Amino acid sequence: MPSLAALRLRKGATCARWNSAGSKFAVGGAESIVAVGYYDPDNDWWICKHLKKHFEAPIANVAWHPNGILLASVSETGKLCLVNACIPAVDGESGNFDELIASFELGHRPLALC
């Protein structure tokens, strides 16, 4: 059954990926934001929290770690960030959402994340 997903992006989406459990998705945006969506059964829609403090350029690609908590994102300028994308209500763990785990400057050519 289709339901609403509130991305709250002002510009276009550039990439998207589901986590391995299918419980969350990540959408990279042209405004240097990654939206992390999860289902809210009380309101019957997908709501998003934003990862936004790490990038200064559009997001080229996103990829989930198999644990479904860590998220890698690379910008159009080649900056790669590994970020905590834990949603306690979904993941059953506590964590600091949008906490930077590692950051790398890869150059000006974005990499494909698998």
* Helix/strand structural class: mainly beta
The pLDDT mean sits at 89
The counted number of beta strands is 9
Radius of gyration: 13 Å
Sheet with most strands: 5 strands, mixed
- Give the neighbour order of strands across the main sheet: 1-5-4-3-2
Helix content: under 10%
Note poorly predicted spans: none
| Beta-strand share of residues | over 45%
User: What quaternary form is this?
Assistant: single chain
Order of helices and strands: EEEEEEEEHE
**Terminus-to-terminus distance:** 29 Å
Overall outline: globular
What does this molecule look like?
This protein is mainly beta. The chain has one helix at residues 88-91, and strands at 4-6, 13-18, 24-29, 34-40, 45-51, 59-64, 70-75, 79-84, 100-105. The protein has a five-stranded mixed β-sheet, with no helix packed on it. It has a four-stranded antiparallel β-sheet with strand order 6-7-8-9, with no helix packed on it.
Secondary-structure map:
Elements: E1 4-6, E2 13-18, E3 24-29, E4 34-40, E5 45-51, E6 59-64, E7 70-75, E8 79-84, H1 88-91, E9 100-105
Parallel strand pairs: 1-5
Antiparallel strand pairs: 2-3, 3-4, 4-5, 6-7, 7-8, 8-9
